[in-house]
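Sequence design from tokenized structure. All designs in this work follow the same two-part layout: the structure record, then the generated sequence. An example of the structure record is given first.
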């Protein structure tokens, strides 16, 4: 009788462990953002359509795991002046000198959501200009770090959030107004939807093959196609202005 009881108990425990293991391995369907649910290209977002899309938190709220630093005068992963800090689960860019954080991994075909707000401090060369930063994406693995590396930029600048900058020789086409500034092309966003400082702002970027779109606080403000780069690492700029990044989240689309 005791032996039978032991066998039953062991069987129950094994069964329970198997159920728990199975539950842990079951993918949790991501909550789909409104701009994806209502997007005209939704049928192309295969991971969204089949329920396998899962969020990737690029910033864990604790430290810079998954990121590298580049500062022009110090190089890679040498933040000698503590410009990139994590405070109260928020990324704090002090603002000086020039550089960026960039992901160790490369990404293609995704929805990216970044929440930021401006700080107060400004440094040369931004003292007499709007506060400036930027989200650069499609920075290829085989391209060296520099200011600024080959990539597509979603402008994060006071009153200009959502502009495109074609950085490091990249090219693209857009239905929006384009201008050439020095060696870089720029597409002007359609309207200003940025919240006043110090309120938080949400930037959303959709990248699908050779196309991308920029959203500011839920509004589509820019789009481009025929991007000359369609895959790569993601950068957050440090450009002479204090800025806080609350979250950086990515949802693979296909």
């Amino acid at each position: 009788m005791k032996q039978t009881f032991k066998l039953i108990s062991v069987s129950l425990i094994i069964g329970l462990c198997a159920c728990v293991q199975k539950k842990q391995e079951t993918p949790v369907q991501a909550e789909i953002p409104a701009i994806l649910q209502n997007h005209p290209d939704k049928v192309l977002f295969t991971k969204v359509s089949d329920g396998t899309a899962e969020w990737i938190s690029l910033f864990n709220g604790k430290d810079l795991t998954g990121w590298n630093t580049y500062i022009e005068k110090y190089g890679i992963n040498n933040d000698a002046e503590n410009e990139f800090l994590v405070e109260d689960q928020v990324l704090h860019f002090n603002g000086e000198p020039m550089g960026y954080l960039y992901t160790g991994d490369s990404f293609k075909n995704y929805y990216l959501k970044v929440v930021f707000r401006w700080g107060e401090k400004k440094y040369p060369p931004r003292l007499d200009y709007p506060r400036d930063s930027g989200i650069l994406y499609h920075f290829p693995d085989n391209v060296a770090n520099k200011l600024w590396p080959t990539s597509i930029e979603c402008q994060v600048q006071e009153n200009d959030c959502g502009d495109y900058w074609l950085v490091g020789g990249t090219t693209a086409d857009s239905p929006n107004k384009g201008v050439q500034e020095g060696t870089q092309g720029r597409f002007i966003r359609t309207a200003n939807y940025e919240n006043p400082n110090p309120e938080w702002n949400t930037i959303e970027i959709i990248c699908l093959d050779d196309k991308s779109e920029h959203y500011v606080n839920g509004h589509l403000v820019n789009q481009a196609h025929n991007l000359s780069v369609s895959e790569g690492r993601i950068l957050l700029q440090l450009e002479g202005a204090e800025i806080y990044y609350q979250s950086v989240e990515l949802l693979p689309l296909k």
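The mean pLDDT is 90. We note this feature because it recurs in several other targets discussed in the main text.
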